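quick q for whoever's on today - can somebody do inverse folding on this one?? i tried earlier but teh output was garbage lol. tokens:
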């Protein structure tokens, strides 16, 4: 009986959050360890379907770096990275589109639909959802590094997503952008998700990572921080390494109109539900003020 009572208490704890967020958009960047095997993807899909059933409007933006690396290796296409970014040659771009816009996107979409959701998979090229330009990253000598078909988000057509949401559908988006002449660009998933979240003025932008969240100088989790505190933590070195670009994406989303950003550990089962529907949450929440 005690187990049933605990389940009931969990539902009661979630009720205020369900009421608060019903009808609102939550953008989730899905990647990393949470995508490592089919069982984890299936668990994530179930959680997202639950969000949809209680009236929340999830928008999923996914990655797929490891899957791209595996196919490039099988096809004997060399892989090179500069400044931590994949150099995307025309040959590699074909693989990126096959994996992100095809295999991975359809796997996630199919699992969500299998559990009762109404998901539609698309890439940023569809209906020119994500307009992009070539990423001219300055090198050590000040000259742009040649990253090939790597792009930056120029604009997001929020009406494409809003139309799908109004019809009761959940967009599952591959981070591929389209240029002025119809060319495809490989866009970092976090960056694409931040741009989409800002364009939608989403209630929440959730980044799934492979760590518990933002840590302080003693390596303890910071459960909540303002964007001012986040800027200061980057400046003083508290936030370092791979967490810097994730926090910066969150700050970009806040500047674009997102209400709150959450950086959470995607390795934890049901991490999205625990962050949204519990009082304490499990990761780091970044607020505007």
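ok took a stab at it. sequence:
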């Amino acid at each position: 009986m005690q187990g049933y009572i605990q389940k009931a208490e969990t539902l009661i704890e979630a009720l205020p959050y369900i009421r608060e967020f019903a009808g609102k958009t939550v953008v989730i960047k899905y990647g990393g360890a949470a995508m490592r095997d089919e069982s984890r993807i299936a668990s994530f899909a179930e959680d997202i379907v639950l969000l949809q059933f209680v009236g929340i409007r999830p928008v999923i933006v996914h990655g797929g770096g490891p899957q791209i690396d595996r196919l490039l290796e099988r096809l004997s296409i060399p892989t090179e990275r500069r400044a931590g970014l994949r150099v995307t040659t025309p040959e590699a771009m074909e693989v990126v589109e096959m994996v992100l816009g095809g295999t991975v996107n359809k796997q996630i979409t199919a699992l969500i639909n299998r559990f009762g959701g109404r998901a539609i998979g698309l890439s940023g090229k569809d209906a020119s959802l994500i307009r992009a330009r070539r990423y001219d990253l300055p090198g050590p000598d000040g000259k742009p590094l040649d990253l090939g078909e790597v792009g930056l988000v120029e604009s997001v057509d929020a009406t494409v997503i809003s139309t799908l949401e109004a019809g009761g559908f959940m967009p599952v988006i591959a981070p591929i952008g389209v240029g002025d002449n119809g060319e495809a660009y490989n866009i970092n998933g976090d960056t694409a998700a931040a741009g989409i979240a800002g364009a939608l003025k989403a209630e929440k932008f959730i980044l799934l990572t492979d760590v518990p969240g933002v840590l302080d100088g003693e390596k303890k989790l910071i459960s909540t921080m303002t964007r001012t505190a986040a800027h200061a933590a980057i400046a003083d070195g508290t936030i370092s390494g791979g967490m810097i670009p994730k926090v910066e994406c969150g700050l970009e989303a806040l500047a674009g109109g997102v209400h709150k950003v959450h950086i959470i550990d995607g390795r934890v089962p049901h991490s999205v539900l625990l962050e949204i529907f519990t009082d304490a949450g499990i990761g780091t929440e970044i607020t505007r003020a």
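fwiw The mean pLDDT is 92. also The chain has one domain: 23-287. so keep that in mind when u check it
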